[in-house]
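From: lab user (bench 3)
To: helpdesk
Subject: output format question, protein + zinc ion

Hello, I'm new to running complex predictions and I'm not sure whether the block I got back is the full result or only part of it. Here's what I submitted:
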Amino acid sequence: MHFQQLDNMTLQSSSLPHTAIVVTDASIKNNIATSVSQIHIHNHPLIKMVHHAAFITSTEAELFAIRCNINQACSKENISKIIVATDSIHAAKKLFDNKSNPYQIHTTAILHELQQFFSAWQENSIEFWECPSRLNWRLHWSVDKESKLFNPQPLFPGKISWDYCKKSDSDNIINQWKMTFQASDGKGRNFLNLVNDNYEIIEPSYIKGGPWLQAFGLSNSLCARATRVITNHAPIGEYCLRFFLNKEFKYPCGLYSIETRRHILHECMRHNGYWNPRRDSLNPFIMFLSANPKAFTFNDSLLSVAPNWTWSSFFSLFSPFHFLLYSFFDWSSFFPYLSLSLISFFFIM
Ligand SMILES: [Zn+2]
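Helpdesk reply: Thanks, we reran it on our side. This is the complete output you should expect:
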């Protein structure tokens, strides 16, 4: 659909000699950004520019390409309309961000150029079109391909942009966070390592709340149950065996004397409302929990052998540290953020 709109736009512009279509793209390899920009007028490529810069971010490279293109388009005579097609529309939006930001050196230069362009004739205009690389739209495809062709090597030590420094720091912290998560016991020995759709172990991330909460964070009860399963702090025999050796409990299935998380997830005929066997993958795991609302929920049958024992007395045994475990209860419907903070806590550890 968008592809068609881009083609229609090009077709209309091809008959207008006063319209310049500028197409930009940038890619980064070996810490060197390559930005390629091309200007088309009357359906013909007119100017192509290639720039390299070391130790800058992709947003800076994209903005620089837009800046060069607009500068070139404005310098052409009789151009009354500029159409910018870019796969980084977020970079173009920085032009209209009037807050203080690290890209102002580019945005100020571009806006200065545009001010002169608009002052020259009141009908002059500019449009920005988003053109994702995956569309392979013909005009963008060639600049995208070309920006990736180069393999430059830094010859001399160069300046490092402020934004690049911040990005490097952020990348290092995230890598350290992921290594700590995999290597340390902070997440607990019983932590359930789920995999993603590509069968890779899910790693912590701060993007959109992280991969776990993205999958089940919208439902409080689902989030509470998923948290119980992942941390193995759930109302099942395996958990009771760890903390209440002297208590008796029964397992309704009868197949095993101890009800384990693995049995419930992969074998138990009491919970087979979802057929996909890949329950070690996050999405099938969540679908299993959704299809089996009684799995990993609290009920009285588990402790029916010990009638004097209640779940509230169970929690009175915990030290202050274990107050976090309260969030495993369905109290999450009253305190939804307890579960969220709990799972965040484990992941941050
Ligand atoms: Zn069973």
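A quick orientation on your result: The beta strands are 19-29, 32-41, 44-54, 81-86, 125-130. Let us know if anything else is unclear.
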